[in-house]
């Protein structure tokens, strides 16, 4: 189990977006070198919490510390990778050119082959992103984040729209990254993805429901199925 300082510590974080209290006094700790799943129904505040951690969310009340610095600090730009929900890739560039573009920004061109391999796109490296499937484009986005060799990788619903084989493959790759010491935070609204995570942050209506491991979730609720366990936790709240 990781013993170092947490990668992220959120303390009493609240965010209002328009008329909605998107985050309501949320405090969570994300351990280093592990996979943390951020789970909860659509609209519960997952993206807002990820944005607060990355430092792109405006008007955050409370404290968000990332790798020992306030979220959004300039020194974190090279250490935090963020993959947003919709793949942001240049469709007229090849996979390799997309990844190279980010590698040039980070000064890490030597990391290009590894980043492409890590998402299983070696054979597509010279294909235009516009000719790829939606799931493959998502993986190009992930490669663009990986090429900067981030210590903290934030992935917002990276497996949406992927078939079960690709999803399993991507989770294997996330595990390999965590084994290499990278901290991953992965959001999903599909509870069965929780089984791939070391720690879970469960949210509902902008609030924290629980912060625990999948095993603790099962034993606390007496449910083996994680979806049932989440529902049982909500009903008990
Ligand atoms: N730009 C915005 N202006 C006003 N309200 C917003 C804005 N973006 C999000 N919200 C609201 O904030 C709340 C939290 O949204 P958020 O995107 O964080 O949820 P989410 O859990 O990531 O949802 P999903 O799983 O559907 O992506 C929702 O009620 C949403 O309607």
TrEMBL record:
CDD domains assigned: ABC_DR_subfamily_A
Transmembrane segments: none
Keyword Nucleotide-binding on entry: yes
Stored Pfam families: ABC_tran (PF00005)
Any GO MF annotation of the entry: ATP binding
Name of the molecule in the record: Putative ABC transporter ATP-binding protein
Domain ABC transporter: start-end pairs: 8-230
Stored SUPFAM superfamilies: P-loop containing nucleoside triphosphate hydrolases
Keyword terms: ATP-binding, Nucleotide-binding
